[in-house]
Structures are given as C-alpha cells and as structure tokens.
Amino acid sequence: MRKPILFRSFLGAMAALLSVVPSAQVQAAPAKAAPTNNQILDKILAGVKPGQKFVKIDDMLMPVEKVRAYRNKSGGNRTASGNRTTSSAFERHTTYWPNGIVPYVIDGSLQPAQRTLFIEGAREWESIARLKFIPRTTETDYVRVFRDAGDPNYSFVGKIGGVQDLSLGIYSNRAVAEHEIAHALGVIHEQSRSNRDTFVSIDFSNIVAGQENNFAIVEDSDNHGTYDFDSVMHYGQFDFAKDSSKPTIITKPGYTQFQNVMGQRDHLSVNDKQGMIDIYGGATPIVRPSNDLFSKAKVIEGSSGTVTGTNVSATHEVGEDNHAQGGGSASIWYRWRPVNRGTVTFTTKGSAIDTVLGVYLGLSVSTVTEVTSNDDVASNTTPADTTSSVTFPAQAGAIYYIAVDNSSKSGGTGDITLNWNQNVEATRIKLSGFVKTKTSQPLSSATITLTGTSSDNNLTSITVKTSKTGEYSFSNLVAGNYNLRASKAGYTFSPSTLKVKLSKTSTGNNFTATLTPTALLPQMSVSDLSIREGNAGDAFVTFTVSMSAPSKDAITVNYTTVNGTATSSSDYAATRGTLNFAPNVLSQTVNVKVRPDTQIESDETFSLSISGAAGANIVNKLGTATLLNDDAAAPTPAPSSSSPSARSAKIAVPTRLALLDSRLK
Where does the signal peptide begin and end (predicted)? Predict the structure, then answer.
C-alpha cells in the first residue's frame, strides 16, 4: 500500500482488474471524462511486458491472466462515474484459503515492530472468522511477510498459489496490517463494490491523472452487508486528490454524517468482521492455554522441578518480544520466584516440538527486560538438538517470567516440557555481639574466635577483634552449630564458651570481661639449656615454659624459634605455635629438632621466644639453647725420617717441647 489507505469488499472477477495500478504520474490537467472499465483494462494490459505475470493497483497485486480473462469476457460496461452502458457477465476469480488455513513465513527483512503487527493482525482475524495462520513447514502455498523498502505496504489478493508476498513498512500500524492481511484473504477495497454510487460520488476532476482506475466499480462484487463507510478497507475522503483541501470521495445526501468517517485507521468495523465470517465461517471457539498470557503465567516453585503444558492455540501478545530472535507465534508463560540465590538452568528437554526459550524480569509483557534466551542447544549437529536451554544466576526473591515459544523455523505446536534445576547457594547469615566489663564499659581489641561446623559440613574457624564500642560481628556465615570464645591478656570472660545454633541473623551474643589483677597473675618464663650437637641421628632441644604458680583458668601463650649463631637453615628446624595450659598446669615443653654435623666449629646458639600470654605475665620471654661443639680435628700423621719434612720436624721438636715445658713451669 503506497499510503495508509484502508478498504473492504470481497473480490469477484473485477477484483482482478482493480488489483492493477499503473505508476502514479501527475498530469497537468485531469481527464475530461471518466474512463470506462474497459478503457482502464485496455490501458493496464497495454502496459504489460512480455513474461510479466502480475499487475498492481495501489496496494493490490493480481495475475495478468485473470485480468485478460475478465477483459475477454467483458461485453460492455458502465462508466466509472456510474452510468451503465451494456450489461456484463463477470466471472468470480478469487481463490480463498482452504479451511481458512494460511501458512506464512517471516522474512528477515521484516522489522521486529512490523512482525508484531502482523502477528497481532492475524490473531485478530483468527478471533473473528474460522482462520488459522500457521508458520510454514512444507506447505507449497504460503504468504511471505517481508519489508519492501521501496514500496512499503501491499499484498496479493486471495490465494494465488505458491509463495505470495505481503509487505509491511515501518510506518504501518495494526489496522494497516489487518488491511493487507484482508487482501491476502480475498478482500478488495470497499469503494469498488457494485452499489457504491448509491452512497458516494467520485470527483474525477480532482483525482491525480493516472489514478482514476483506483475508483473503478466491480460490477459483480461479492458484497456483504450494507455499504460500510467505517470499513478498514475504505479509502480516505482525500485520497489521490490533486487539491488536498477538496475530497475525492463525497457522501451523497442522507449519508453526509459519514464524510469524516471514511478511511479510519484504528479498528475493524462490524461489517469487516461479518464479511469475513460470511466467507470463512465464524471462528470456532478456541481454547487457549491457561498460561497463554504474560499476566496469566503459571506459577512454578522450588529449586528444581518439571512441568508440562501445551502451546496449541497459544498466541503472541501485543508488544511481546521475538524470543531469542527466533520465536514463532505460540508462546506460553511461567513465573518462578526463587527462595535462595544460585545458578539455575531451564531446559525444554522432553518437548514434542522445536522450542524457543526466554527469561525476563518486569511487570508487563511490553516492558520486560530480557535476562537470557536460547533457540537451539545445537542446531548444527546431525541430528540437530532443538532443545532450548538457558543458565543464569538467579537472585533470591526476584520474580522471573519464562516464555516457551515455538520456533519460527518449524512453527509447530504441541506438548511442552519445562525443566529447571538450581544450584542453591547457602543463605548468608550475620552473627554479632558485644564485649563489655561488669560496669558496662566496652572492651576493645578483644579477640573473638568462632569455631564449628556449618550445615554444609564445612569446618569453620574465624577470629575478629572487637571495635572501640566493644562490638564484633561475623558476616556471610552459613547456618550451623558454632562455639564463641573471647580472649584478651589480663581478662577473664563469662561465659568462657558461648554455644550458638545459627539459623538466621543472630545478635546479642555478648561476653562480660573481668580484669585480672596483674599481681595475682602467675609469672611465666622459658628456660635456657645446652646440648651436645652430636654427629648423626635425630636430636632434640626441649625448652620448658614454666609458671610461677598454678592458675584456675586456662592460659595460652604463643612461641616461635629465633636464629642466633645457629640458623634454622642448617642447624635446627624452625617451629612456632601456641601452648595451652589447662587449669593448674605449671609447665609445658616445646621440642625443637637439631641437625647434628661433623664440622669443627664454635658453640652455637638459638632461642625460643614466647609472647601474647593470656592469663599470665611473661617475665622471661627468651630461652637460649646452646649447641656444644663435640667435633675434634683428626691427628696429623708423623712424617718419615728421610723426607725433608721429617728433617724440618726434627729441628722443630725441641722448640715445641720448650714451649710446653715453659707452660708446665
């Protein structure tokens, strides 16, 4: 359709004629007399080129042979202005779609918005008459819906056999789509019906030269109902006007109230609907799936599951996405709200048809945001895996809408299976509390140790420090059974151990700190010791860490070895750790392995350092271990008497003896 002109009237033989429009050429002056239909036919056929199969009038395409057949049978005509000359017999050429089934394909050139308009228009006609638009599979006769960038809106009239085009431009609306679909179903323009001149007159003097044939009358048009000024198939009152301030179609007395009604662009009229019912029959009541609409999405629950359904007789809604850029026209919807977060996979494995899957967040079908989508798992394999599958990180409490559609490649409808499985992440929980003195003063820098086993059987050991306000907290915990202990040098705590069964956020896990007077704390020290280094085998230095007096509380102290002249790289094995003194225990030992050798060297030392005692005062923090050298030089062999060395040695002996003698004295 060259411009958004909307018309209606069912096609007879003359419809074939009127489906031919020469190119619009604005002439200097209009024709002096209205052309007859025979004149129109002759002009159209004169312009047919060898091999040309179709001719076009405005937005309607018709086979050339049907136009010739009509002209050959036309004996006379009335003028297009309404004056009958000789009666003519017209042959009905329109072919309707058998059983109202119209296969179609969506061409890649069609814009998403126009694709939606076509689907919506087709569904509207389906709801009125016994029609069914189905994505083509192997059908020979079908409609190709596409976008012709040079001529936005047009269609063949009726079923012509084989593939036939229907173009929708970017400025189309739903009414325009319904208009072009009506052409494909066999409907022509309303103002071309045989009784038109009873209701309107045509001002041919104001019609652009060359466009007069758009207003020719179909003598044997298959009229349904009264003349319909409100039809979506009717021209507008100013269409094809040279002077756009003057109408080309003028209502006759008694019908002037409809002058501004002609050419409406927003709905199907009552007669539009009834005419389609007269030809194809009334729509059989269609039972749509209960979850056909976004607003009626079927609720599914749980972290995993399987649900079955069907998309037979399902539709696409106004504003619905083209799922995975490969969706068909029969989607059903599910709604899922996860309790926990975690990665989830949805698949259509087990479905009887080739599916497309889309997941969305949002409040309405036209405003949703896509989370993810998929057409085929593996379309390039042999055989192809047309199962759809998506995986995404689901957030707890979010509401996800899942659309399952048929694929535009196959267009099938049938039983659908939707499976889902979520790898649930454990809920993260916070545990907190305070450490204060008996006088409610906050205790900062106290160490809080949490140990225990989470519900997912992981062992946990975490330490934190209290803040200036005495507060502490552990975040991102998993439910489980835990023990809490507080410690700080010079303090005892109540309770000594706090047991917590954690299932939700837990506060008020508090400790009371009591200052232990320094004078009453036992004193702690580490001993010095010596050991022969040895030549081979294992040897140990045992340090003893002692208490000056027993304590009723458990005491801990940290220890570590410190290099001296002996180093951990060659003389001993470094070690570090924590000693635990149970109540009333006075001493603990630390064993350090030494490495014996046969080198002659001086005595060497290393130390054990203790620090961070909880419940005791360290008075001697460093214990020194001395490794005594026990290696001697090998004796020097006596030289022979004949060698120069021997002679030298004989001379040197008295001097050596003299020195020794001097020492003895």
Answer: 1-28
